[in-house]
Each structure stands twice: as structure tokens, then as C-alpha cells.
């Protein structure tokens, strides 16, 4: 069944968009990532204009993250104090990101900028993930103990002033560190339409030194508020949010997130991480090809009957 998108000004297969939202929502619930780093490129591949894909995918991330965050909240996997500090930084970063987004759109370079940033981010993140998971799997196959990094915050984080206790995370650090981390993710949320979990989760583990038990849930908690605010900014400033597209993505995303949260408790973690790393790299390569490959015909004319 085809539906017309009023803002994107095109028709889409509704079932395909729902399934896309469901698949990304599944990854969101499983890994604590908002999923926008996959939703936006996949929408672009489908033919949705990049600016509209960014703004509309933020809405889907909000819905799928709410479902996942509630699941982790019920099992005590959220640090609300840490999450509130990150949300404060994320809201500030969203405002800064909206200014940059409007500037790039006024220059007419928003589509190219989104593509280039995605290639760099996905290529870098996917490469690091793949290297880590392959190293872990090699040690497991050789019967060697898997080396786990000690849970401690980075020396730069330890040097920041005004320390505060975060009992649920097991930390005594300055709130400036999670605030600045949240602000950086807020900028990316507006410009790229991502929840930022693919950056937030590793940073919470290796920079802040948070307990792994609350990292995923706290990441989703922060994503809910920041992506909702970013959606409002897009709707008010650039009018790029296509509500029909957003609803289709939400229908699949909410269900997928709940299934992902359950699957995270049963499926083998290393193979899942390997799959995610390969998927991220595949999307990065596909975007790079789309940006650099010269089509045989630069322009085409389609006659409407």
C-alpha cells in the first residue's frame, strides 16, 4: 500500500517503511542506540530528501527510545540523576545544532554535508567496533580469557572541578563531563537525526567509567528528551518533519524496541556486536558510493502520462 508524504512530496510503500522502523527499533532496544544512524541513511537510500529524513527520523527515535527506556527503568537499569545532567547538555547542544542546520540549509549544502558527516562517523565507529569484537572473538576461540577494561573514568574527567556523587552509576565526578557529552550528542541529533547512542554508550563506559548495568538504560533516557526537543526545533524552524513518515516509522519502532530489549537478554552478545559493526560499515560504504559515484546521465527527464 502506497501513501503520499506531504512534506517529502512523494509516495512510499507504507509496509516497507514500517518494517524499516521496526528493524531499527530492534537495534535500539538491544544496544541502547537511538537508531537514527541507520534510519536516516536508509531513508536517503529509499529516495527521501536528506533534510526531511533527518528531521522525521528524530521522531521515530523518540518513540522507540521511550519503549526501550521504560523496559530498562522497570529493571532498575537507568540512572535518572546522570540522565538529567546529560539531558540538560543535550538541550543546549540541540539549540546549537539547529543554528548550524539552518545555516547549512541556507547555503544549499545540507544534503552534501549530511552525507559526508555520516560517512566519516559511521566509517570510524564501525571500524572501531569491528576491530574490538574480532579481537574478543579471537581470544574466545583460542580459549584465552577475554580482557576487560577496568571501569574507571578518564584522567581528563577526573581533573574537572565541582564533583558530584552519582550513586546508581557508582561515580564521584564533575557533572561538567556528562553535561558536555550530552551537548555534543545534542548537536549531532539535530544535524544528523541520530539519537547519539552509538557515541554515548562507549563514552559513558570508557570516558565516564559508568557501571555497565545502567549505561544502556541511561543512554535511552537521555535520547528520549533530546530527540523530542530536536523534533520540535525542526518543526518550528525548517518545517522538515513529515508527520506521515514519522508515524509509519513509529509504528514499527515502538514494537521493535521492546523486542530488542528482550533479545538482549538471550542472544550471544559478541555475534550481535559483530553484526552491528558490519551493518554500520556497509551503510558507510553505500553512502560513500552514493556521494562519489558519477552516474552515466547527470540529468533525467520523466514524462508523466
Automatic annotation (TrEMBL):
InterPro entries: TM_pro_TauE-like, TSUP/Inactive_protease-like. The chain crosses the membrane at residues 12-38, 44-72, 84-104, 110-130, 171-199, 205-229, 241-260, 272-289. GO terms for cellular component: plasma membrane. Its main location: membrane. Signal peptide: none annotated. It is found in: Cell membrane; Membrane. It is a multi-pass membrane protein. It holds the Pfam family TauE. Keywords: Cell membrane, Membrane, Transmembrane, Transmembrane helix. Belongs to the 4-toluene sulfonate uptake permease (TSUP) (TC 2.A.102) family. This is Probable membrane transporter protein. It comes from Sandaracinobacteroides saxicola.
Amino acid at each position: 500500500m502506497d501513501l503520499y508524504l506531504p512534506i517529502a512530496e512523494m509516495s512510499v510503500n507504507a509496509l516497507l517503511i514500517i518494517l524499516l522502523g521496526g528493524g531499527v527499533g530492534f537495534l535500539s532496544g538491544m544496544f541502547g542506540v537511538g537508531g537514527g544512524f541507520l534510519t536516516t541513511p536508509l531513508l536517503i537510500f529509499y529516495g527521501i530528501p536528506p533534510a526531511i529524513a533527518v528531521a522525521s527520523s528524530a521522531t521515530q527515535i523518540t518513540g522507540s527510545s521511550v519503549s526501550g527506556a521504560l523496559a530498562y527503568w522497570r529493571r532498575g537499569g537507568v540512572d535518572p540523576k546522570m540522565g538529567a545532567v546529560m539531558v540538560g547538555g543535550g538541550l543546549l547542544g540541540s539549540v546549537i545544532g539547529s543554528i548550524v542546520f539552518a545555516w547549512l540549509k541556507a547555503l544549499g549544502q545540507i544534503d552534501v554535508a549530511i552525507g559526508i558527516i555520516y560517512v566519516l562517523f559511521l566509517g570510524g565507529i564501525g571500524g572501531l567496533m569491528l576491530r574490538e569484537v574480532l579481537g574478543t572473538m579471537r581470544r574466545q576461540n583460542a580459549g584465552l580469557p577475554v580482557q576487560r577494561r577496568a571501569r574507571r573514568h578518564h584522567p581528563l574527567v577526573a581533573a574537572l572541578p565541582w564533583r558530584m556523587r552519582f550513586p546508581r552509576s557508582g561515580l564521584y565526578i564533575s557533572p561538567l563531563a556528562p553535561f558536555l557529552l550530552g551537548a555534543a550528542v545534542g548537536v549531532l541529533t539535530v544535524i544528523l537525526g541520530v539519537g547519539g547512542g552509538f557515541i554515548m554508550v562507549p563514552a559513558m563506559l570508557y570516558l565516564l567509567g559508568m557501571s555497565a548495568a545502567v549505561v544502556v538504560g541511561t543512554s535511552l533516557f537521555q535520547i528520549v528528551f533530546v530527540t523530542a526537543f530536536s523534533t520540535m526545533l525542526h518543526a518550528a524552524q525548517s518545517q522538515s518533519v513529515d508527520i506521515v513518515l514519522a508515524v509509519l516509522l513509529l509504528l514499527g519502532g515502538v514494537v521493535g524496541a521492546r523486542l530488542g530489549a528482550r533479545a538482549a537478554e538471550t542472544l550471544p552478545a559478541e555475534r550481535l556486536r559483530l553484526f552491528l559493526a558490519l551493518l554500520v560499515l556497509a551503510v558507510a560504504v553505500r553512502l560513500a558510493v552514493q556521494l562519489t559515484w558519477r552516474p552515466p546521465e547527470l540529468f533525467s527527464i520523466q514524462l508523466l502520462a
